[in-house]
Request: fold
Amino acid sequence: MKISGVDIRPGNILEYEKGIWKVAKTQHTQPGKGGAFMQVEMKNLIDGRKTNVRFRSQDTIERVRLDTKDFQFLYVEGDSLVFMDQENYEQITLPTDLLGDAAAFLQDGMEVTLEMYDERPISVALPEQVEATIVEADAVVKGQTASSSFKPALLDNGVRVMVPPHIASGTRIIVDVYERTYVSKVG
Reply:
């Protein structure tokens, strides 16, 4: 499906220079002289390269629709992750770096969505939020107001997040996977 250069949005998957690219950021610019353009930061989903491209309103680019398939995370094997297709129970092994920083939040049995292009997995989407246990939390500094202050805490998966002062070690919390932020206390 062809779209105009100024209709590109973050998260779009584009076919550009014989590659498949995911849009990370866009910035619409209207210079004093000349036509408007969209400055687009993209990452190649096949080899991981990044690029910045300008698209004018008269430029058209092919937007790609990816097939999605539900998988279940099984276990880690060296630098790879093993997933199971929930329809036919076939297993697939993918490199850990396909997930980036979100890999730390994988939990045994977690359901994930694989995005496929030509039957080849090119990205893995985890749930937006997961439950985690705090293993270490700093003490509250006396005199801090509860409404605006947060303190650092270490989760059971090794990730550091900022939490409100009333959250103690051993507490189960809900964390935003992609923002790496505290959402709420469980229950």
